[in-house]
Amino acid sequence: MAEGTKRRLELTAMGKSIDIRWINTQTPLGLHEHAFQELVIITRGQGIHFTETEEYPISAGDVFFIKPEFAHGYRDTSELQLVNVLYYLERLKIPESDLREMPGYRALFELEPKMRQHDGFEGRLRLSLDELAHAIGIVRQIEEELEHREPGHQFLSLSFLMGLIGYLSRCYYRSQSEQARSLLRLSSLITFLEKNYQKDISLDALAKQAHMSKSTLIRSFRKSTGYTPIEHLINIRVAKASSLLRENRASVAEAALASGFSDTNYFSRQFKKVTGLSPRSYRQLSSLLKA
Q: Is 1 within a domain?
C-alpha cells in the first residue's frame, strides 16, 4: 500500500560497501528505495511492512531481503526494533555461484522477494530465539570490524557478512512452513537446470523431481521467475551459447550442441527469440564490438 512520496537512500560514506544500522525505535517510515541490498532482521516489537502493492505484519525473529530499487516502508509500529545489514553486492567479491548451490540462499534472497506479491509474507524466514541471537552475534562481529578499522577489517567484515548470509540461508533451508518448502523445491530445481542444461530434460521429469503436478509447477515457477521451467531452461542454454559465440570459441553448430540443443534450426529460432538476433549475427556483432 503506497504512502507518500518515495525517497531514495544511499550509503553516503565514500567507497563504503557494507554498513550496519541499528534502529532502536523504528517509527513510521514512508516509501523509500536505495541502490544497495538490504537485509532486515527484526529484533523486537511489531509493525506493518508495506510496498507499493502490498502490506504484511512483521515481528521479532522475522528476516527478509530488500532488493535494490524496491520501494518499501513501515507503519503502525509498536516498540519495533531492527537491524539493517546494507551492502553493495557489485562492489564485493562474493562467490554467488557457490552460494546459489545452497537451496536456502536462492529461496531467501532471490525467490521469496519475488513471491511476496503473490503469497504475501508467508514465505519469510522466522528465526527462533537461539537463531536470532546467533545471527545478531554475527552482525556485531561485522560492526566491530567496520568500527575499529584495524588492518584486515575489509577482509574480515566481508567474511562475517558471507557467514551471516550462509547462516540465514541454512536457517531457511531448515524452515518447515509450507510456503518455504515450496520455494526450496523450486530453488533446488533451478540449480538442477543450471547444472544439467546440456541433458535432455522434460517437464514430466521436472514435475516428478519437484513433487508437484505439471500445472502447479508451471504456475509456481512462473510466479517466482517470470518463466515456465522449459522457458527458463532455454534461457540458460541460450546464455551458455551466447558466451561461446561472443568469445568466438565455437561455430554455431558447436555452440548449439555444447549448450544442450540437438537441432541447430530449433537452436537458431530460440536464440533469436531470446536475443533478437540470429546466432551468426550475434557472433558477428560481438566481433565488431571487440574490434
A: no
**Rounded to whole angstroms, how far apart are CA atoms 173 and 276?**
38
Domain range spanning residue 203?
196-291
70 near 113, Cβ under 8 Å? yes
75 plus 152 within the same structural domain: yes
Of residues 66, 56, 72, 22, the one with CA closest to residue 42 = 22
The sign one gets for the Cα dihedral 240, 246, 252, 258 is negative
97-124 confidence digits (pLDDT tens)? 788 888 899 999 999 888 876 666 677 8
- Asked if residues 39 and 76 have their Cβ atoms less than 8 Å apart, the reply is no
* Rounded-to-integer distance, Cα 94 and Cα 60, Å: 28
d(CA 44, CA 118): 27
- What is the pTM (predicted TM-score) of this model? 0.84
Describe the crossing of helices 178-195 and 203-210 by its angle, rounded to 10 degrees. 140
User: pLDDT by residue (tens digit) across 160-215?
Assistant: 999 999 999 999 999 988 888 889 999 999 999 999 999 999 999 999 999 899 99
Q: How far apart are CA 165 and CA 94, in angstroms?
A: 10
Q: How many domains does the chain have?
A: 2
Q: Which three cell numbers stand for residue 287?
A: 566481433
